[in-house]
């Protein structure tokens, strides 16, 4: 843990220096090849895994993995869900397509449709490569290429630490959140779920933000975001529905398991 914490301090200073003198260009991601992007994602997640404390066994962890496989097939977004072992509200996507989420965050959902929305938010970030874009815009492609080749000592460890401890790479701009929220309500509609479940979840969570909850400080939710997301609902009636029966059953099963674990303590 000390290694990643030290690396996170290093990356904070490095990013601060870079952003102070370099204009951030989100289109710079296109300067990395698909193979380089995939390699970056794999290396960063491998470095983070030991520190994350992932839960590999149990019905919730198993249900998350299965649901990730089904969503990958149905939505054509390669995503893998992992259960994170700590008592904070957290959901973080990595550039590898891996998503780590805590049981506490999943339990915030009060219905199967809300649970699906919570997970789809991260799938949307994976599908748009939002985290990869932020990393490349901060470091520039040639610096990352050097790190992938074994240079830039500690840089990839710094990126892994930043994501592990919910640093700047895991935070998204208002424009990015608006795009992902719209994608979530569209997917909910496509999968036969209640599309209003996502803005309902966000609205209810506002009360948690106002209590200075940990996750809300890292991933703010405000009235503007909730109202904008409710406005997105007007667009979903035109969306072609997919066959979401298998996914719906899996989400129901996972929600039931979370409810059982909540009642048992």
**DSSP summary: helix tally:** 13
Mean residue pLDDT: 81
Compute the CA-based radius of gyration.
18 Å
> Uncertain regions: pLDDT < 50 for 5+ in a row?
1-26
Report the strand count.
4
Shape, per Cα inertia axes: globular
**Biggest β-sheet: strands ordered side by side in the sheet:** 1-2-4-3
Sketch the topology as an H/E string, one letter per element: HHEHEEEHHHHHHHHHH
Biggest sheet descriptor: 4 strands, mixed
Structural class: mainly alpha
Question: In which range does the helix fraction lie?
Answer: 55-70%
Tell me the fraction of residues in β-strands, as a range: 5-15%
Terminal CA distance reads 29 Å
Strands, helices and their partners?
Blueprint (H helix, E strand, L loop, with lengths): L1 H20 L12 H19 L1 E2 L3 H17 L4 E5 L6 E3 L4 E5 H5 L4 H16 L2 H10 L1 H8 L6 H10 L9 H17 L6 H13 L4 H5 L4 H10 L12 H19 L2
Parallel strand pairs: 2-4
Antiparallel strand pairs: 1-2, 3-4
Can you summarize this structure?
It contains 13 helices and 4 strands.
How would you characterize this protein structure?
It is a single chain. This protein has 265 residues and is mainly alpha-helical. It has 13 helices and four strands. It has a four-stranded mixed sheet. It is globular and about 50 Å long. The N terminus is likely disordered.
Main attributes of the structure:
single chain, 265 residues, mainly alpha, disordered N terminus, four-stranded mixed beta sheet
